[in-house]
Amino acid sequence: MSITAQLENVSKLYGTFAALRKVSLTMETGRCYVLLGENGAGKSTLLRVLAGLLRPTYGTLHVLGTSPQEARERIGYMSHAPMLYDEYTAVENLEYFADLYRERPCLDSAAALRSVGLDPELRRPVGQYSQGMRQRASLARVLLSQPELLLLDEPFSNMDIGSAHQMLDLLAGIKAEGRTIVLTTHQRELAEPLADSLITLTAGSVSATTEKAVHA
Predict the structure, then answer these.
(1) Which of 12, 16, 22, 60 is deepest in the core (most CB within 10 A)?
(2) Which residues contact 136 (CB under 8 A, 6 or more apart)?
(3) What is the value of pTM for the model shown?
C-alpha cells in the first residue's frame, strides 16, 4: 500500500515547551487515523504540521511524497473553528473558496454541498445554521478541492448523535474512495468504527497505537 504521510522524530517547540515530542508515524493511503488524547496533548498541533501550517522544529516529514507546503493544494484541512463567513450562504462560501484553488479542478459548489447532505438552494446565511449543518458545510469546503488527504479537527464537535452518525457515514464513503483521513476527537467510541488506527498522544508524544487488521 502506498504511503500518504511519513513522520520521523517530529518535534514542535515553542520556546522550551514541546507541543510535539519525537513523533514517528507512517500513514497509509486509504485509511483513517484517529488521534486521541486530552486537551493540550498535541493533536491539533500534529494536524497543523501535516497541513503545512506549522513547520517542525526537528525531525523529517513527507506528505504525498513531498513537503506539506508543496502538497498543500492536495490537502484538505478542517479546523475546530468552521472557517466560514457567517453572512454568506453555503453556496456563496464555497464559490469564494473555489476561487482560491485556481490551479486545481474543484467540485461544483452545489455538488459539494449535496455530497454532505445539504441543500444548495437554501438561502439562509451560514450564521443561522445548526452546529451539525455548520460542520457539514465545513466538510463541503474541505471536499471542494478534491483533496487526497483530509485533516479534520474535532469534526463531531457539539453535534447531536444523529448528525454525528451522518458525518461518520460521509467520512466512510470518502475513505472508500481511497482517500486518507486523519481526525482528532474526544469521542473515541464514536470514531472507532471508522478508524483503521487509533493513536493516543500524551504530552506531545505517541503513548499508544491500536491498529486494525487490513482486509483484502
Answers:
(1) 12
(2) 116, 117, 118, 163, 166, 167, 170
(3) 0.91
**Grid coordinates of 116:** 454532505
- The model's pLDDT over 18-33, given as tens digits with 9 standing for 90+, comes to 999 999 999 999 999 9
* Pick among 3.40.50.300, 1.10.1060.10, 3.30.450.20, 3.30.70.260: CATH of 3-85+149-211: 3.40.50.300
Q: What is the dihedral of CA 99, 101, 104, 106, to 10 degrees?
A: -50
Q: From the CB of residue 71, how many other CB atoms can be counted at a distance below 10 Å?
A: 21
Per-residue confidence (pLDDT) for residue 167, from 0 to 100: 85
**66, 110, 130, 165 from 91: Cα distances, Å:** 32, 7, 16, 24
